[in-house]
Specification:
Number of helices: 2
Radius of gyration: 17 Å
Number of strands: 13
Distance between the termini: 29 Å
Largest sheet: 9 strands, antiparallel
Strand content: 35-45%
Order of helices and strands: EEEHEEEEEHEEEEE
Amino acid sequence: MLSACTTVSPAELDPTEPVPSESSSASAPADIIIGAESTDIVDAGGDVLVSLKYSEDGDDAVAAAVEILGEPTEVRHQDSTNHNPEVDGTSWGGFDIVVNRYRDEVLLTGEPRLYQPAFSVQATSASTDSDVAITAVDLTRVGDDFDVAAKNEPTNLVHTDDAFGTRSVAVDLPTSFPGIIDDAGIEMVYGAIANAVSDSSTVTHIIAPAYLFSQS
């Protein structure tokens, strides 16, 4: 088992790290809500048990999620490529946390660092193996009709990859920094993204944070 998935108590975590609330031990998780800047795990009453901010430490986010969701169903590792950093993934069956392990020499600084998250999350089903629901902040879920999810969104927040037939829509944008940026004259949309693969009319996965045009 990777150390990133080791259960720790709130007292062992730094106060600045994501930790469950004191009432979390008495409240069962009911919903995982995926947003552009963080993912919240809430109970049936809507109280936030833990808020996982993508700008904060990825291993701490995994440990905090373990406190709420229990032991993961799978952990995996992927070496770096020319385009992506080394990553460690932790899954609860339908919900993944992927920790990015950037090399020091490729870490960005300042505003660009906002678009280089410590970790990302992904939903591949509408609930975890333990029946915790998974939704985007706009209530989009895996299995929903993609056209319904994209219906009321501006055209610049919806993209179709003509070469591969995949479609994506931004279901939430950041509020503390720009979710739409200009990159050498190309408008880049960044946030929580719902996707449909070729030959599918339904949302097949939701990932955050990510760029609208980079989904596969």
